[in-house]
Amino acid sequence: MERALYVHIPFCLKKCLYCDFYSITDLTLQDCYIDVLLKEIKEIEDKELKSIFIGGGTPTVLSKYNLERLLKNLSRFDFKEFTVEANPGTLNEEKLLLLKDYGVNRLSIGLQAVQDNLLKRLGRIHNFNDFLNNYEMARKIGFKNINVDLMFNIPEQSIDDWMDTLNKIVDLNPEHISIYSLILEEGTVFYDYYQKGELSISDDEIDRQMYHYAVEFLKSYGYEHYEISNFAKKGFECIHNLTYWNEEEYYGVGASAHSFIDSYRYANASDIKEYITSRYLKREKIYISKEEQMQEFMILGLRKIKGISKKDFKNRFNVDIIEVYGDKISKLLRQGLVFDNGEFISLTSKGLDVANQVFLVFL
Ligand SMILES: C[S@@+](CC[C@H](N)C(=O)[O-])C[C@H]1O[C@@H](n2cnc3c(N)ncnc32)[C@H](O)[C@@H]1O
Ligand code: SF4
């Protein structure tokens, strides 16, 4: 069976003020980290993969030496899609050529916004021009599948700023665009500011206005809206992330990474020092019952705009979706939050706005 592989690189040059993904800024640990990571990857060297995703953190912050030994190791697998997350300001021609040479065929670049004052507000290390230089260099080197991450409802971001961001990005014609509403995560600098009343976040109405504007705008430029936050040109949907939304199996290697194999979820040590000293072996193993898997299938599946295939549910769990969730689905249908076209159950436009509440119904 072909599975997906996620590789976590927990290093960043500087922590962005809103981010709670696991990463540290002490780059001196990278040699030991990659030593252990390569040993963990060796454990699955005989497995079949459909996709590899090196995420972070900021994978492109690794030294050329470490990036090369990681890529060399991973390039031995057969895969359809190989993505690397890259942060503008950490890419150069040498690193891009290295990625290309070892078979990376998809780049995911975190831009967030085109206004330098907003990038500064977010604590990003780059400006818009750095992004443009990296993007153009990547195209010149031959990357034909590029995703750009954008954020909306950033403090002090006006609707005009958001429209300008979307306009400037579609002009570049990337194959894929992800749009994320800023989430105030506990433990981040932004969360502290907010608690102290030093950060103003727009209300839900503005957030939704920005979201709906983006959906219509991106569709009008030929992007298919295929997941709540994701848009792709035809044939460029992210194979790796679809694995999660289809609740299929994946390996996750590196500090804080998770795997889902044969009904078990494995959680690696989340602290990099613990990951290194335990030689990756300190892992939590949790059994995911059939009932829990059905819940996850619903919650993750409804993230896809196409929705959940009734046939896929039956094939996977050997029971009819209506038999398990008939009452809940009927209620959501009456509330106009989901739509049933006979084959698929999907969120309506109204349901998309309150997606988290709909997901809770299945828990
Ligand atoms: C974890 S980052 C990794 C990519 C890379 N380090 C970067 O920042 O460009 C992936 C994406 O998650 C999004 N993200 C991170 N924290 C977020 C938050 N609190 N709210 C919304 N989006 C967030 C950003 O758009 C970011 O580009
Ligand atoms: S958003 Fe990206 S660059 Fe910023 S701290 Fe998070 S992982 Fe690092």
Could you describe the 3D structure shown?
- With 363 residues, this protein is α/β, with parallel strands linked by helices.
- Helix 2 (64-74) packs parallel to helix 3 and helix 6 (159-172) runs parallel beside helix 8.
- The relative contact order is 0.11.
- Strands 7-8-6-5-4-3-2-1-9 form a nine-stranded mixed β-sheet, with helices on both faces.
- The two termini are 29 Å apart.
- Helix 2 (64-74) links the parallel strand 2 (49-56) and strand 3 (81-86).
- It folds into two domains: 3-244, Aldolase class I (TIM Barrel); 306-363, Arc Repressor Mutant, subunit A (Orthogonal Bundle).
- It is built from 15 helices and 15 strands.
- The model has no long low-confidence stretch (mean pLDDT 97).
- The chain is globular and about 55 Å long.
- Residues 12, 15-16, 19, 21, 23, 56-58, 87, 110 line the site of iron/sulfur cluster.
Looking at this protein, list some descriptive labels.
363 residues; alpha/beta; TIM Barrel; Arc Repressor Mutant, subunit A; 2 domains; nine-stranded mixed beta sheet; three-stranded antiparallel beta sheet; 15 helices; 15 strands; 42% helix; globular; binds S-adenosylmethionine; binds iron/sulfur cluster
Helix/strand layout:
Layout (H helix, E strand, L loop, with lengths): L2 E7 L20 H13 L6 E8 L7 H11 L6 E6 L6 H9 L4 E7 L3 H7 L5 H14 L4 E7 L6 H14 L3 E6 L7 H7 L8 H17 L3 E4 L2 E3 L6 H7 L4 E4 L4 E4 L2 E5 L3 H6 L5 E5 L2 H12 L6 E2 H8 L3 H14 L3 E3 L3 E4 L1 H5 L1 H7 L2
Parallel strand pairs: 1-2, 1-9, 2-3, 3-4, 4-5, 5-6
Antiparallel strand pairs: 6-8, 7-8, 10-11, 11-12, 13-15, 14-15
Helix pairs in contact: 1-2, 2-3, 3-5, 6-8
The protein binds S-adenosylmethionine and iron/sulfur cluster.
The site of S-adenosylmethionine (SAM) has 15 residues, from strand 4 and strand 5.
